[in-house]
């Protein structure tokens, strides 16, 4: 699965075949087929745990009191997930193949829509929706960038992404910083 | 070229062949080959005018006085370009095939790096770099989303994206709004 994600990153989902993955691993194609009959089955296996995590975060954020607390819980949860899945998240959010796949799983599309609604809830109407879209796509891409200053300090990266997201959404830091 | 962009959006660059485009247009493959011998040549022809525009925007922003005015000029210019190229920009920024291609053209990679440096110049170090990455990727993705409230009102979309970007970067609106 790690080999598949690396291939998705380099060649995109549509440009990746099970044959390429088995070649990369030095396995026969039938060894891969034993686990995944199609690329979609492989993609589903990769997405399943991340979407499960995201659904838990969305449900927890929805249970917070008030739209600002809900947006903040969603933001901080998503940033933590994005940092923990730093290799995977930028690949998943930019690739048209993943978008197609999500549309074929209405339960997962619904989770993404609930996430967007939570982030958009701070400001009514389109103003909130545009900011939610900027924050979600922006964080998913920015988490994959190399910042020389950060090195391996993922806590620093996480802090900076939360700060950026709060600014965009118009949320104050809980400690007023 | 419009057919190619639509295919990139649906199937990503790696999942698009010149054969698919000629099939879609009801042309023979040799009719396409008359104009583009490879998919990279086609991608280059699509990117050329956009990168030319972006380079002009970057040069204009660099000539503004002070880092805040530079960042604001870069932001407003990029949002205007993204709205004008609303079909193309979300495809170009998310696709790994485009990233690979940009790396093969150091002159174009340099333009993107200058754009990021202008947006990051408001705040020193990593704090500014993270916000620049969020703004650039966030706007490129958010411009492609459908907002029911906006309909065909692209000026409204442009305003909302500029507002979101200024917030993230910590820039005031010139009129203090």
UniProtKB/TrEMBL annotation, chains A, B:
InterPro entries: Homeodomain-like_sf (IPR009057), HTH-type_TetR-like_transc_reg (IPR050109), HTH_TetR (IPR001647). The keyword Protein biosynthesis does not apply. The keyword Nucleotide-binding does not apply. GO terms for molecular function: DNA-binding transcription factor activity; transcription cis-regulatory region binding. Residues 17-36 bind DNA. It holds the Pfam family TetR_N. Coiled coil: none annotated. It comes from the Bacteria. Keywords: DNA-binding, Transcription, Transcription regulation. Residues 1-54 form the HTH tetR-type domain. This is TetR family transcriptional regulator.
């Amino acid at each position: 699965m790690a080999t598949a994600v690396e291939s998705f990153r380099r060649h995109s989902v549509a440009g990746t075949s099970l044959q390429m993955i088995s070649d990369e691993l030095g396995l026969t194609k039938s060894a891969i087929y034993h686990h995944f009959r199609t690329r979609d089955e492989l993609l589903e296996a990769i997405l399943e745990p991340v979407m499960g995590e995201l659904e838990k975060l969305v449900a927890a954020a929805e249970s917070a009191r008030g739209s600002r607390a809900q947006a903040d819980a969603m933001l901080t949860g998503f940033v933590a997930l994005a940092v923990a899945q730093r290799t995977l998240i930028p690949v998943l959010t930019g690739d048209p193949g993943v978008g197609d796949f999500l549309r074929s799983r209405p339960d997962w599309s619904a989770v993404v829509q609930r996430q967007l609604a939570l982030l958009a809830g701070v400001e009514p109407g389109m103003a909130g929706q545009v900011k939610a879209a900027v924050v979600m796509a922006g964080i998913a891409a920015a988490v994959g960038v190399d910042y020389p200053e950060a090195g391996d300090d993922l806590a620093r990266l996480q802090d900076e992404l939360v700060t950026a997201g709060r600014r965009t959404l118009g949320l104050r830091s809980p400690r007023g910083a």
